[in-house]
Amino acid sequence: MTNWPPDPGTLTRPAYRSLVKAVEAAIQNGALKPGDRLPTQRQLAFDLNLSVQTVSRAYSKLIESGKIAGEVGRGTYVRASQDDVQMPFVTRKTSLGLLDMSILKPVIDHAHEDALQEVLRAMARSVPRTVLTMSRPDRGHDFGADHMPGPSRRWLGLCGLRAEDAAIIRTNGSTAAMTVALMTAAQPGDLILAEEIGHHTLRPLTRFMGLRLRGVTVDDGGICPRALEEIARTDGVKALYLMPTGMNPLAFTMSEQRRAEVADIARRYDFLIIENHAWGPLQDAPPPPIAALAPERTLFFTSLTKCLMPGLRVGYLAVPDHLGPAAASRHMVTNWMASGLMTEIADRWISDGTAENLLHRQRLALGDRTEYAVRILEGLEYRTSPNGLHVWVDCRDAQEERALIEAVRRDGVAVASAASFSIGPHFHHTGIRVALGGQGFPEFARGMRIVARIAREIRNGQLGAQR
After folding, report:
1. Distance in angstroms (rounded) separating the CA atoms of residues 180 and 326
2. Contact status, residue 352 vs residue 97, Cβ threshold 8 Å
3. How many angstroms separate the Cα of 313 from the Cα of each of 106, 191, 373?
4. 10 Å Cβ neighbour count for 321?
5. Within its chain, how far is the Cα of 198 from the centroid?
6. CA distance linking residue 16 with residue 60, whole number of Å
7. What is the number of H-type helices and E-type strands within the chain?
8. Which of 315, 42, 368 is closest to 179 using CA atoms?
9. pLDDT tens, 297-346?
10. Which of 135, 152, 292, 413 is the most buried (most CB within 10 A)?
11. What are the φ and ψ backbone dihedral angles of 451, each rounded to 5 degrees?
12. 403-433, pLDDT tens digit by residue?
């Protein structure tokens, strides 16, 4: 790391204050990254020819300011930034008049309206008593009277996970499942690893939970096993958070071989895996989930929100059976239970085939939009996934990324920036995420044309001349 530790000759009096500034500068310029372990006070005092009391005072000031965290028995670590993380989507206050291609939503048409009206009419004729009276979490095993898998396990089966020996918790969508999974897998101070560009809520969530988060190098095939093992070999990793199937902003899908390598590393270094499969079974034939390769240590969650209907906030968290009680208790104290009305709709749709019919329509619609995006973006650098909900457009650097976002916004389109997803250094991956669903095809096509045109203008240096 450059500029760290500092040259003893550069420290001025009072030495503790000069050391504080040196650490802050190293964090600011990236020489020290979130999750990096600092030397012990005694070791740093020896290296810089300072007293232990001076280093201790500097560390205390840095802890007070939130720059570092000291953990008994673990050492002292650089903390993640305390600044609020910029969300990738636009708020209602700022979205007036904008075509919102910043947030991932499925394509909705008349079939969804018809299906919802039909199930609500059926429920009105015969309201299940559980919807009226249930006020405590259902601790059932989600098997029918004939011991066939119930709706939750059937949906997990469509995602490629049999989950026969897993505990299943129904949640109010993926965000609730993600929170429960992290609380089950780790305690304050533990180290969580993730792709260096990943889920936009992971950084603030781990920070609020007192967890240390570090990004791991990724390439076109996902997280790099060698980089993962290098960290696992030297640091006490508690869990690895992954989005291996299309959902990552870079739209990659990890191969079965790489998934097996990751599972092997997790076994050898004894850490858990949290697998985010929020898109559900959108892809036609993806590799098996990591949870199928390492069921004893993987917490897997999925939902219906992204692949069927945004308002259907129903998710399923599958955890190894030995973690079931812990996950259930954490779900109770954070969410208490999933909404009875929403889970009843989900159960009916999964049981009578409506969910699979809507899923099939979603695959076709997103496949058509991906093909259109590929045609429009010809000649640019971009990434897509089969039937995916977004396309990633690469930028050469952060400056080009900002220019592209601002220019398309002036033309009435909102997109998501790489900065919202960066867990490692932002400059490693710069670009924009453009959502494919959430509006009708004419609006989607207009937005894609605007993004492609402006991206070409910026790449060719023509934007300033024309505006």
Report:
1. 9
2. no
3. 13, 29, 28
4. 12
5. 5
6. 10
7. 17, 18
8. 315
9. 999 999 999 999 999 999 999 999 999 999 999 999 998 888 888 999 99
10. 152
11. -60, -45
12. 999 999 999 999 999 988 988 666 678 999 9
- Contact between residue 432 and residue 416 where contact means Cβ atoms under 8 Å apart: yes
Two tokens, residue 36: 């990096």
Secondary structure class of 8 (helix, strand, coil): helix
Q: Which two tokens stand for residue 268?
A: 């050898």
In a 13 Å sphere around the CA of 276, the CA atoms on its Cβ side amount to: 25
Are 100 and 416 spatial neighbours (Cβ–Cβ below 8 Å)? no
Q: Of 320, 40, 82, 327, nearest to 182 (Cα)?
A: 327
**Given this model, what pLDDT does residue 4 score?**
81
Where do we find the tokens 């670009």?
A: 431
**Beta partners for residue 132, in sequence order:** none
CA gap 52, 49 in Å, rounded = 9
Quick check: 237 and 265 in contact, CB under 8 A?
Answer: no
Q: How far apart are CA 294 and CA 292, in angstroms?
A: 6
Q: Which two tokens stand for residue 75?
A: 């050492």
User: CA 463, CA 90: separation in Å to the nearest integer?
Assistant: 24
Q: With pLDDT > 90 as the criterion, what percentage of the chain qualifies?
A: 70
Residue pair 305/314 in contact (Cβ under 8 Å)? The answer is: yes
Sequence-ordered list of residues with C-beta below 8 angstroms from that of 365, at least 6 positions apart, any chain:
107, 109, 437
Q: Do 168 and 156 form a contact (C-beta atoms < 8 A)?
A: yes
Cα 173 vs. chain centroid, distance in angstroms?
Answer: 14
Distance CA 433, CA 410 (A): 17
Cα gap 467→464, rounded to integer Å: 5
Tens digit of pLDDT for each residue in 437-465?
Answer: 999 999 999 999 999 999 999 988 876 54
Packing angle of the helix pair 340-352, 151-158 (nearest 10 deg): 60
Size of the chain in residues:
467
Tell me the one-letter amino acid at 197: I
According to DSSP, the β-strands at 68-71 and 75-78 are antiparallel
How many CB atoms neighbour CB 348 within 10 A? 18
Tell me the C-alpha distance between 230 and 158, whole Å: 34
d(CA 153, CA 170): 11
Residues of the chain with pLDDT under 70: 1-3, 71-74, 80-96, 137-149, 424-427, 463-467
d(CA 174, CA 180): 10
Q: What is the pLDDT of residue 360?
A: 97
